[in-house]
Automatic annotation (TrEMBL):
GO terms for MF: uroporphyrinogen decarboxylase activity
SUPFAM superfamilies per record: UROD/MetE-like
Organism of provenance: Methanococcus voltae PS
Sorted UniProt keywords: Lyase
Gene3D superfamilies listed in its UniProt record: 3.20.20.210
Protein name per UniProt: Uroporphyrinogen decarboxylase
EC number: 4.1.1.37
Chain positions covered by the region annotation Disordered: 1-24
Amino acid sequence: MISDTMTPAQRARAKSNGEPIDRLPCNPNIGNGIARIAGYKISEFNSNSDALADAVIKSYKMFGMDGTRVFTDLFLIAEAMGAKVNKPEDNTADLEEPAIDDISKIDDLKVIDPYKDGRIPIHLRAMKKVKDEIGDEVSVTASVVGPFTNAFFLIGIEKMTKMLLKDPESVHKLCEISLKSCMKLTDAALEQGVGVTISEPLSSCTVISPKHFRNYSAPYLKRLIDYMKSKGVGNIVLHICGKTDPIWDDLVDMGVNVLSIDDIADLKLCADRVGDKMAVAGNVDPSAIMYAGTKEQVRKATLKSIKEGYMAKKGFIIMSGCSLPVEVPIENIQTMMDTVREVGWPVTDEKLEKLMAITKYE
């Protein structure tokens, strides 16, 4: 087995200085699978900051991935604003009821206090613990759900979808108060010494049209990005699920530095079209390959992603296309990491073709 000769922090510094590195950065994006790795039930993360932090730390120490994230689900901000969240004993939380059931109650919504509301204080304590223990080796981040996606959780996805067509004014009011809560979480995360990333899954062109993205999501996403940069965030990392190619140029214009794309997006097209303006991360299939595939299939898919993305001039990070399913086999995560180490540095087409010709993976 090939071992790293750099920590993720050393690798990132060398890459930014144009110096040699030992391998490409890789982040499998494990999600709540960290519970399986560390021996917890997912529900423990809802009340025990030590358990959440310990699972993040143990996952990093097992795999050595280039980035850690204190994250459990998409509903942290919405819950703190009044939404009800279903929290299974050992699975990922889901939205049970939005914060309000009618737009006439929009003025009842309050901007969050991240140190008091919902599960956010638990996450903040976990962030600080992770940062203190491994922050010198690897980046530690909080995931901030974007203002547009969070607005859906405040009124409900079905109602919000209808409002896009029939009540634009109310959509903007929801996005405005949602944005203010996103900023509050950003402030609190930065106060713990960690970075922030943005998840905007409902800004996907699989969900809404590019026109609706530009009318409703983009203004608030741009303000959040500008706010993060004003607070010293050097690299804006954004993930949007599904189809995103119609809005790649919009994301460049609003200052995204690293774009994480889903497995249905065309990685080569993304690297070719905007890879000279922002780094690209992606996009191994989290379900068919990482969860249900063999080690050989994981290896081949990882090599394919490297071949399609490594020429992006601003940089390329091997990732799964979205957070991995909870029950993803640990050996498949290890295979992704080992494959990236096998490729090493520098990366060339010839090296990749030789490795891809190996049909048996032990």
